[in-house]
Amino acid sequence: MKAKSRSLAPLVLFTTALTLVVVILGAYTRLADAGLGCPDWPGCYGHLGVPKTAEDVVAANARFPERPVEAPKAWTEMVHRYFAGTLGLLIFAIAVISWRRRQDTGQAVALPTAIAALVVFQALLGMWTVTLQLKPVVVMAHLLGGFTTLALLWWLFLRTSAMGTRLAAGFREVPETMTPRLIAVVSLVVLYAQIALGGWTSANYAALACTDFPTCQSVWWPAMDFEEGFVLWRGLGVNYEFGVLDSAARTAIHMAHRLGALVTAGWLLFVSIYFMKGAGGPAARRVAGALAVLLIVQLGLGITNIVAALPLAIAVAHNAVGALLLLSIVTLNHVLHPRSTAVSPVTEGAT
Question: Distance between CA 244 and CA 273 in Å, rounded?
Fold first, then answer.
C-alpha cells in the first residue's frame, strides 16, 4: 500500500516564523543605515562574507573607493542576506514538495508556486536595492514584498493545517449590509496602504521630519510639499542614502504617514469592537481581541519613535508589530472564510 505523506504544515509554520525574522532583520538593516553596507550583490566587496584580513580590506577599499569597508554595517547586511537566502531555499522546497504531491486530495499547489515566484522577485528587489543605491520606490517595494511573503505563508499554513481548521470552527455569518467578510478584506487593504506609507517614510528618511507630537514642528499644519514628496521615479544614477528630499517634502511624507495612522487606527479600532461584540463567532472575537492589543502597542511605538527621535530598538519593534498586525488581519480573513473540506495533516506510515 502507498505510504501516507507527512504534513507540510510544520515546515510551512517554521518558514513563516523565519520570514518574520527576515522582515525584522530587514527593518534593522534599513534603520541602522546598513542597506549599502555591502556595495555589491550578492557578495560583499567581492567576497561571500565580509572582508576580514588587512589585505582583503585594502583590496576592497581600492575596488570601492567611494564606500570603504565598515565591518559592522557589512555584517548587518550579510546576516540579513544569509537569512533571506535560507528562507528562499525553504520556500522553493515547499513549492517542489507541493508539486510532487499535487495528486493528493486537498494539496495546495498554486499558492506555494506563487510564493516561490514572489521570492524570486524579492531577490531581484534586494539586488536593485543595492545596485540602484537605495532608490525609495525599490526599498518600499522590497518591504511590501517581504510583508506579502509573510502574509501568504501564514495563509497557506492556516488553510492546510489542523490548527487552521480548528481556528475557523464556529464561524457565524451576520446578515448585515456590511458583512464581516467585507470588513476583514477592507481591513487588509487599509493596513497594506499604511504599511506602504511607512515604507515610503523610511525609504525617504522622513521619520524625523517631525519630532513633536501631536503637533509637527510646533504647529498643526507645517509647510509641506506633497508633490515633491511623492515622486516615485527620479531617474537612475542617484545615491539615495540618507535621502535627497528637502524639509518640506519629507514633512509631507511624515504627515501623510501620521494621518494614515490615524485613519488606520480608527478603522481597526472599529473592526476590533465590531468583532469583539460577537460578529463572526467566537474565533473572530478572539482574533479581534489580539488585534486591539497589537493596535494599542503599535500606536505607542509610533508615538515613541517621534518624541524619542527614532530609537533603533523602538523603530524595529514598530516594524515587527506592524507585521503581527498584518498576520492578525490575515487570520481574521481565514476565520471568516472557513473551508468546506478541511485538510487534515496526515502522519507518515504504511497503510
Answer: 42
